[in-house]
Amino acid sequence: MTTSILEPQPSRKPMRVRAETCRMFESDVLERFSRIHPATPFVMWVPVALFFVVRSALRHDLALSAVAALFLAGMFAWTCAEYVLHRYVFHWINDTAWGRRIHFLLHGVHHEFPNDKDRLVMPLPTSIPLAVIFYSLFALTMGPTLGEPFFAGFVVGYLFYDGTHYYVHHFVPTTRWGKLLRRHHMTHHHADHDGGFGVSTPLWDVVFGTMPAKRRS
Question: Which of 27, 105, 191, 196 can bridge 3 by disulfide, Cβ–Cβ 3.0-4.6 Å?
Fold first, then answer.
């Protein structure tokens, strides 16, 4: 018996209340892995980042200032990767049945149910393969000595992204920067799906001309 992907089925709630979640899979196992507690990425990836930072700092062939610079460069690189993934992968559209299913699994579910607290951070079955790909890329192109502190910063940048994403959906920021990020992301959700791809920063939307419009003409 094959496991099929379900179309979004709102959870049972009174009709006057908008559903905040849906069942994605017939399989209970797959359904469980499609959900994640917002603390899980931090429990998983903070030790990984610390491991590579400490190992890099203990290397005698790399100065601590170089480790710090590579770490910050990795954090900055994440902001660009975040933009590219969100714009070209998560918002990839193919108007076929399988294309719509893939889009729904990758990101469409979040746009259908934006306040689903179990699907606001990246699940481990997605983040672990991505981490392996990016680590391999950095290690091959930069060498492990330079690539590992860069990767550690990249991971911390990702955690800022996941944390920011959860925060702007479930809290009301009080700082100017927090208000800007929340307005930027909510505009992407509710007014302009073709703009506002940065979550932790609007920098790359400014660079590539994709700042979201409050109303689409």
Answer: 27
